[in-house]
Amino acid sequence: MAYQKKYLPLIFGVAIAAGIFIGGKLSFTDSPDRLFSTNSKKDKLNRLIDYIEYDYVDDINTDSIVDVTVNGILENLDPHSVYIPKEDMERVAEEMKGDFVGIGVSFYTYKDTIAVIRAIENGPSAKAGIKGGDRIIMANGDSLYGDNLEDGDLVKKLKGPINSKVNLKVYRRGEPQLLDFTVKRDKIAINSVDAAYMLTEKLGYIKVNRFAESTYKEFKKGLDKLQALGATEITIDLRDNPGGFLSVAEQILDEFLENNKLILFTKNKRGDIEESYATRKGDFEGGKVYVLIDENSASASEIVAGALQDNDRGTIIGRRSYGKGLVQREMDLGDGSAVRLTVSRYYTPTGRSIQRPYDTGNKDYYDEYFERLESGELLDPEKIKVDDSLKFTTPEGKIVYGGGGIIPDVFVPIDGSMQNETLSFLQRRGYFGNFVFEELERDRHAFDGISRQDFIDSYEVGEDLVYAFQDYLNLRSDSKVTFVAYHDEVKQYIKSTLADQLYGTGAFDEVFNQRDIMIDEVIKLSEAQ
Helix or strand or coil: residue 367? Predict the structure, then answer.
C-alpha cells in the first residue's frame, strides 16, 4: 500500500500528460482508427518551415513564409476565402464594427501639415471648436508636420483610448498665434449609410455603402426620418456595395417583408440547411420598394435584392450584380491574424444560388468586369448570358435566374459620362477633394449664410473653376488633361465635393444624384404608379 501511495503522484502525472497529448491530436470528427495517427500534411508544412528557419543558408523571415503559404492555400479554395494579417486586423475590425476611437476630423496632408477638411458633426473636435481649414501642428507635444510623416503615423498620434484627452496646437489663418485645444477622444462613427433624403414628395432615398455592425441602426434612423417626411416609397441604393454581415442584411429585409416570409437559406458541406424568416416587426411592409444595383453590388447587397425580388416585394433596377453567394466566417489563427473561410453557400427564397463560377481561377474571376464590358452587357440587357437550367419562378410567376448575380427587373445601362473612368479615378484618388479644399482656403467665408438646401438647389459652378481644376491637375501630372467633352460632369463632381466639405453627411450624394440616370429611372417608375 505504501508503495502505491509513493508512486501515485507519478501515475497521475503520466496520465495527465497523456491526456494533454491525446487532446492535442483529437478531432471530434475523426474516426477511432485515426485518433492516434499523425497528420502527415500538417507535419510536412511544419517540418519545411523548421528546416528553413534552422538550416537554410540565409536568414529568412519565416513569418512572411507562413503568410505566403496561407495565402497560397486559400487561393486554391475560392476567391472569397482570405487571410487577414495581424497588422491589418485593427483596420478591418473598425470598418466592420462601424466605429473607431479618435478626435473626429477628416483631413489630408497639405504641404507637410495636417489640414482639417471638416470636423465631424457633433464629434469631439467640433465640440472643442476645431474648424475646416485648421492645421494641427502638435499633439501632446509631438510635432505633426514635416516631409517624413506618413498618414498612418499621424493617425496613431491622434488615436488613443476612449475618454483620454489630447492637447492640440492648431494654426488658424488670421489668428496671431497658435490656438490650444484639449480634445476628449470618443467613438467616431464610420458611416455605412451615406445619405437619406427625399427624391420627391413621396419617394425616399437611402444609400448604403456596406453592411457593418452599425448599419441597421443607421438604416432604421434614416428610414424613420423619411417616413416622418411623408415617404410612402423607398429607394435603397446598393450600388458599389461589396456586402458585409449577412445578419445585418436580414435585419434590413425584416423592415420590408411580412411575418414568416423566407429571407434566404444557407447550406454547408454536410448538407445542413439553416433558414431565415422575417418577423412581425417590420415598419415598411406596405410601401413600395426600389433597389438599385450594379456590377459591384455583392454578397449582402445581393441578399437584399434577391429576397425582395423572389418575394415579389420590390423592383430591382440597374445592372446584373457581382455574383457572390458564398458565406465566410472569420476564424482566429492565434497570433493576431485571422482567416475568413467560406463555410456555406446562401440561396435566395426561390432556391437559386447567385454565385458565379470560379473554376478557371481567381484572375479570371476578378477580371469578369472587363468581360461584361467587352461583351456589351453593361449597355444592353440582351447581352446578359442566362442558363435556362437555372431558371426559377417567384410566387407571382416572374422568371428569375441563378448562376451569376441578380438580374434586375428594370435595366439601366452604364452612364458613360458620369461614370467616366478618368473622372472616377480622380475622385477616388482625392484630386477633387484636395482641389476643392484649396479653393475654399482662398476665402472660407464665401459660403457663409448659404443654407445647405439653397446650395444644392441654386449654386452653380462656373467655367473658371473647371479651368482652374484642369490647371491644378496639369501641375501634378506629366500628361496634360482637358475636359472639353466633360465640362458639365466635372462641374457636378466639383459641386458635389464642395457640398460634402461644407455641409457634411449626405450632401455629396444629394448633389451628385441630380445627374444620375438610374435615379431618374426610379423617379419615372414612381410617378407612373
Answer: coil
**Which triple of cell numbers denotes residue 165?**
484627452
CATH number of 193-414: 3.90.226.10
With cell 472569420, the residue in question is 330
pTM score: 0.86
3-state DSSP of 22-77: HHHHCCCCCCHHHCCCCCHHHHHHHHHHHHHHHHCCCCCCHHHHHHHHHHHHHHCC
The residue ranges of every structural domain in the chain are 99-189, 193-414, 421-525
Lowest-confidence region among 45-49, 133-137, 250-254: 45-49
What lies within 8 Å, CB to CB, of 100 at 6+ separation is 94, 159, 187, 188, 190
- Grid cell listed for 353: 444560388
pLDDT in tens, 482-521: 777 788 999 999 999 999 999 988 999 999 999 999 999 9
CATH number of 99-189: 2.30.42.10
pLDDT of residue 39: 62
Give the total residue count for the chain: 529
Q: What is the pLDDT of residues 82-135, one digit of tens each?
A: 999 988 888 888 888 888 888 999 888 777 788 898 898 889 999 999 998 999
Cell of 331: 476564424
Q: How far apart are CA 431 and CA 425, in angstroms?
A: 9
